[in-house]
Amino acid sequence: xxxVTQTPRHLVMGMTNKKxxxxxxxxxxxxxxxxxxxxxxxxxLMFVYSLEERVENNSVPSRFSPExxxxxxxxxxxxxxxxxxxxxxxxxxxxTGPRHYGYTFGSGTRLxxx
Amino acid sequence: xxxVVQSPLSLVVHEGDTVTLNCSYEVTNFRSLLWYKQEKxxxxxxxxxxxxxIEKKSGRLSxxxxxxxxxxxxxxxxxxxxxxxxxxxxxxxxxxxxxxxxGGTRVLVKP
Lengths: 114, 111
Known about the structure:
The complex is a heterodimer. Chain A contains no helices and eleven strands. By secondary structure, chain A is mainly beta. In chain B, a hairpin with a 5-residue loop joins strand 4 and strand 5 (about 45-50). By secondary structure, chain B is mainly beta. In chain B, strands 2, 4, 5, 9, 10 and 11 form a six-stranded mixed β-sheet that branches. A five-stranded antiparallel β-sheet of chain B has the order 1-3-8-7-6, with no helix packed on it. Helices cover about 0% and strands about 60% of the residues of chain B. Chain B has no helices and eleven strands. The N and C termini of chain B lie far apart (about 40 Å).
């Protein structure tokens, strides 16, 4: 375990379903991230939360809705997804500060939209 | 727009071989270059490089950054089957926490 826990590990959902991905970290980090990893594509940044405030939203469709209730928890709410949204969704966390720090990643949620 | 490009896309080697992975970057307000290893799901941190020309080593892995030519290399010597993975490089900025990732290099080490 890396210290960043994602649930569920696997998710299959229909295009009309609503589901949520959960990420939890107990590393004392103040920044959390959602990345999408599709086959044969680089990791794509979706959202960044720093000190529980959303600081980046990379033109992600509104069918993806993040929520960060506190610095230890991050959610990604999903509704009316498309088959092309099938991917590995990775959560990461890092300290904040004037220097850049590497991320600690979770194991991801493998999402399949049918 | 920031960009990180890795080469080769994939390679197959035999145990004991040495591999060199390349990463070039174009990142505004660049601060750091990071390498990760991704075996199944969670990428795990290998190195963070901020200074040009200073090699970082961890066992059989080493990496160096060239900030003038905007690239980094990751070397793996005496490869083992456990080195089989996707290796990701990412560029970090001086401010904020955003990392821009390359597409990765898939390494397969055959016995």
